[in-house]
Amino acid sequence: MEGRILAANWKMNPATKEEAIRLAGEIDDLLSELPLVRLLFPPFVYIPLLKIRNLTLGAQDVFYEEKGAFTGEISPPMLLSVGAKWVIVGHSERRNVIGESDEVIRRKAEAALKAGLKVIYCVGEKLEDREAGRHFAVVENQLSYVPVSEDLVVAYEPVWAIGTGRNASPEQIEEMHAFIKERTGLKVLYGGSVKAHNAGELARVPNVDGFLVGGASLKPEEFRKIGEALAG
Ligand code: PGA
Q: What is the DSSP string of 166-207?
């Protein structure tokens, strides 16, 4: 995996396939020249519909079994068969809204890697953990579940910075990324309110190997500016 990584996490957006196709097409054109690993994570149902040339597609989640009686779940081979090459596991919304445990997330990452998918494994502390000074301990515990593989990158996403417009400071990011790299040897992306206006500053932080972008990845022009800042 050469180069910095720019990943668009659309979450449960947009509302229709027509919008998804239009948005993906715009992003595909606007990012085509940037010397980055360019990844797009749309909702599952849009993956086979998006005919893009300059971005690699991934899924926002995956299940850990290959097939069988698991109503509502999607397996790693299914994702590969519709063109996904990457998957996100352990996003804080899955941890905290859906209630996924570290053990479940580990199993998902292992199954995805075994099937040949590349993985973005998300970690990050909640506000109460940071305020209590437990942030390194919380992330260290989450990291103890991460399968180390050259096909896996970590995304550090402090929960208090996701979708809040409040990004972590360069110092907070630098020290946590150094901590994660020291323990895993893996690449580390930053995620949490990355926007056009702060991307330049965040892209200069040592140990930032890329961005995982939520809200701003639904705005093609803004997303391109983030990509330009990351490409340097
Ligand atoms: P945000 O989301 O950029 O909207 O804060 C980031 C993420 O959840 O991956």
A: -PPPHHHHHHHHHHHHHHH---EEEESS--HHHHHHHHTSTT
